[in-house]
Specification:
Elements lengths: L3 H5 L1 H17 L13 H15 L11 H5 L6 H17 L4 H12 L2 H4 L3
Helix pairs in contact: 2-3, 2-5, 5-6
């Protein structure tokens, strides 16, 4: 069975997804302030690596933990939900098939506890 990483188109597909995703986030008044003073290209690089991992493209995640790298942001469940909704919009723009989109959203949901501040 083909991994989600391959179904989305590998690294180029993830980069295309992120090229759709970040403009949505940057234009969303509810979350755009999270990206103030952020090097967007560096962020996309980190996100590409992470998504490659969770979508089954690389066997090991070797960078700082999500919890450690996001704790200073004080992400709420509401912000996480908005982000997931914006990710869904971006996945739809890159024409990922429905079952792969559902799989991607399920996988993305699994990182909620690492990103949401308690």
């Amino acid at each position: 069975m083909q991994s989600l990483f391959h179904k989305i188109g590998g690294v180029p597909g993830i980069e295309k997804f992120l090229d759709e995703f970040y403009p949505i986030m940057l234009n969303d008044d509810r979350v755009k302030d999270y990206f103030k003073d952020i090097d967007l290209e560096a962020l996309k690089s980190h996100q590409t690596f992470f998504l490659s991992y969770i979508f089954g493209g690389i066997p090991e995640y070797t960078r700082q933990s999500l919890k450690d790298s996001h704790s200073h942001l004080k992400i709420t469940n509401e912000v996480f939900d908005i982000t997931l909704d914006n990710m869904l919009k971006a996945l739809q723009k890159v024409n990922l098939d429905t079952s792969s989109t559902v799989a991607a959203m399920s996988i993305l949901e699994t990182v909620r506890d690492d990103l949401v501040s308690r």
